[in-house]
Amino acid sequence: MATTLRFLSFNILAASYDEGCTPDDPRRWTKRADLNVATIRAADPDVMGVQEMGTGNLQTYQCELPEYHYWLGLTANPYRYPVTPMRNFYNEWWPAIFWKAARFDLVAGGGFYISRTLDASLWYVSHVYDAHYMHPITWVRLRDKASGQEFLSFNTHMHHLARTEGNRPFVQHMLTLASDTTPILLTGDFNNHPYQPDQGWHDSAHRAFLEGGFIDTYRAAGGKEGPEDYTYHAYYGEAIPEGKVGDPWRMDWVLVHPGTAQLTVHQHTIIRTEASPLYPSDHYPVMAEITLAL
C-alpha cells in the first residue's frame, strides 16, 4: 500500500507584528491575509506545518480554511523577555500543524520543548546552547483513512544558534516516538544553513537530522544549494538588495525519516508567490510531494 502526501512548511509571520506597522503597511496581516490563504489553497497541501501561528492568523484560517483541522501545541513562552507592547506577541506563537480532516484521522498529538530534558513543563531549560528563545515542538500522529498508513508529523521554529549538538536529543526523541518504524515528516523554520562542510557550514541543525537518518526533500528532489535557493526574503521577494538580509539561505525545510517505508520524493518547490507590494509572508513557503510505500 502506498500513500502520496503533499507537505507544506510555512512561516506565516505572526499577525501580532501588526503592532509595529502603519495602517497602510503591506506587511500587516489584514493586508496580506487573502494572498496568504490563496497561496495555501493553490498549493493544496495535505498537511502543513505553520510557524508563528498567532491568534489573528488562526482566526483567518478558521474562517477561510475550514477543511483543515489543527493542533496548536506549545507556545513560544514570553517570560524570557520584558512584557512590553512590542514583546507581548511572543505569548501567541505556536508551531501549529494543519491537516485535511476528510483524509486523515488524528491518532495522537503532543508537544515538548527542545532541551536536555524534552519536558513540556520545563520551558525554562529550553535555552540550551545559547539559543535566545523557546524552542517548542508540536507533533501529531495521523492515519490515512483510505490506506490505513500512519505517520508522525513534527513542526518547529528554531533559533539560529540551535545547532548540531542541541538537536541530537530532539532527533532521538522523534525516533523514540516513532519506535524507529513509523515514518516521520518534519517541517520548520530552522534559521540554520543546510549542512555544507565544503562551504564551512559544519555545525548546523541540518547535520543532526541527516546523521539521524532524515532525508532533505529539497536535495532528494535534485535541488542544489546556491544563492537562489533562499526562503527568507524579508519582503524584498526575488530582488533582495545587497546587505539587506545578511547572507540569504534556505532555512525552511521539509525533512523525512521513512522508518520502515520506502520513500519516493517526487518534487520540492519553493513557492515564490507575490502580488507586489504584497507577499504572503516574509518567508517563502516550501512544498514537498512524497510517496510512502509499505
Fold and architecture overview:
- With 294 residues, the chain is an alpha+beta fold.
- It has one domain: Deoxyribonuclease I, Chain A.
- It is built from five helices and twelve strands.
- Strand 7, helix 3 and strand 8 form a beta-alpha-beta unit.
- It is globular, with a radius of gyration of 18 Å.
Give me a quick take on this structure.
By secondary structure, this protein is an alpha+beta fold.
Please write the CATH class name. Alpha Beta
- The largest sheet has its strands arranged as 3-4-2-1-12-11
Number of strands: 12
Q: H/E series, N to C?
A: EHEHEEEEEHEHEHEEE
Topology:
Elements: E1 2-11, H1 29-43, E2 47-53, H2 55-64, E3 68-71, E4 94-100, E5 104-113, E6 136-144, E7 150-157, H3 164-177, E8 184-189, H4 205-211, E9 215-216, H5 217-220, E10 252-257, E11 262-270, E12 286-293
Parallel strand pairs: 1-2, 7-8
Antiparallel strand pairs: 1-12, 2-4, 3-4, 5-6, 6-7, 8-10, 9-10, 11-12
What features would you highlight for this structure?
294 residues, alpha+beta, Deoxyribonuclease I, Chain A, 6-stranded mixed sheet, 12 strands, globular
